[in-house]
Structures are given as structure tokens and as C-alpha cells.
Amino acid sequence: MSLRSVSGPFAPIAAAVVIAVALGACTSSTSLVSSRTQGYEISESAQAQIRPGQSQKLVSLVLGSPQSTNTFGDQSAWYYVETKIRQTAFGMSMIDSRTVLAVYFDKNKKVVDKAVYTLQDGKTIAMETRRTPSFGEDRTFIDQILQSF
After folding, report:
1. Mean pLDDT of 98-112
2. Above 90 in pLDDT, residue 111?
3. Coiled-coil segments, which residues (predicted)?
């Protein structure tokens, strides 16, 4: 059995493919922890462009559509949320930072103020896990049959 070697005009291409495959195996995609940004990436330059007196239309041109809005009486607010997350290969997620840019508008849809909130500004609340039972939802098929007798 003889070994053949690649020669001729395809030798450099074959060598380049072998090197690319070998280097591709060494990427960081096999790391156990990956970082990513969820939501809007808030840049300092975009924040600096938002000033009192500007219209909602100009704010949407600079920042894009808000992720959340709030209207209370004559005033409204737009919220842009950026969350930086580390996730392990096993599916466990950890929040590194969260930044919320809030832009407040008056009744004429002009910017009144803006504020930046971080994780330290938030408060942890306890979620209620109890459920209110509804008719027929929690009974099994056999329970329903026995109930009808």
C-alpha cells in the first residue's frame, strides 16, 4: 500500500485548509463561560446626544425604539435596558451588570430629564409562588369522573 502526496497546483490550497481546520479547533468557543449583552447596548455618545427640550421623534432616531414605556398622567418615560450576562456551558446564568437609561417626556412629548439606573439602584422583591385555584383546573380526570357521581 503506497501513500500518495498532494502535489501540483492544489498543494497550497490543501495545506491552507489543513491549517485553517487545525486553528479553528483552538478557538475560545469551547470555553466553559461565555459573556453576552442582552437588550440595548447603551453608548456614552448616544446618552450625550439626549438633552432636555428634544422631541420624542429625535430620541427615537438617536436611541431607537424603547424596550418599555410608561405613561403616568401628562408625563411619559421610555426605558432602554442593557444587561451583561455570563453563562456557563451548563446553562447557569449570572448577571454581571444591568443599566437602565430612562428618558422622561412632558405632555408635549419633549424631553424633560434622563436618568441612568444600575443594579445597585434596584430592589429585590419576593415573588409570590402560591396560585389561586380555578374551577376544574387542578382536578385529574378520575377526580372529575368521581365528582360527577
Report:
1. 93
2. yes
3. none
